[in-house]
Design goal:
This protein has one domain. It has 228 residues and is an alpha+beta fold. It has a nine-stranded antiparallel sheet, sandwiched between helices. 21% of the residues lie in helices and 32% in strands. It contains five helices and 13 strands. A hairpin with a 3-residue loop joins strand 10 and strand 11. The radius of gyration is 18 Å and the shape is globular.
Length: 228
Amino acid sequence: MFNQYKPLTNSIFFLEIDSEQALSLLLKWRGSLGQKWLKKKVSANLSRTLEQLLPITTVAITKFLILGTKTKWSAFLDNHFGGTDPSALHYLSKKLKCRMIMATCSNKGVAFEYKDPNQPKYTDENGFESHKDDHYIYYSKLEAKGYRFEAAGKLLFFEKKEGYKKSYAEKQFTPDMLKKYLSEFGIEAFDEDFYSPHAGFLLTRVDRDIPKNVIELTLEEAKNYYRH
């Protein structure tokens, strides 16, 4: 089902916190930026709920979807054509002091990100500040340039470093590996039964300051626009 709604579902973020707590801070933060958002509780099945994120937009995000799950994690998506933007989730994770996980799976690549703002901070050899257990894995297809694989941060307890040394770059981090990593945290991101749409909220931006150059796209138009 998730392939059906790409690029909306290219990236799904998870925060280890109740959806209502995250909703409250998100509204407060966006309000401080002069934005006005309409809140609506969702109650449809997952497929109908994802459709409420349409239309997909360029330039500016005009909708957020927050979903409860069968676990302590809440899921987050928005309606940006490139997939859910990480900036809002990084902000919420930092302010709420809760763990954050990103899962990205598209025809352009596979990525996993883990952040725990409760861990001590450190500065790496490149001068970037991070938390002790923060971790990022990224594999992507580069048009006409082959493949790229990157991994940064401390290995998580279940990782096997040897797997990242395979001769074929596209085998270094696969969708199946992403699913396994998520399951180690109790997240079954690609199983629609994992989500509880009735414990979720849809936010729609309604203020007059939405950029005039925003383009609204259908799902099919967005697939061609993004070329994912």
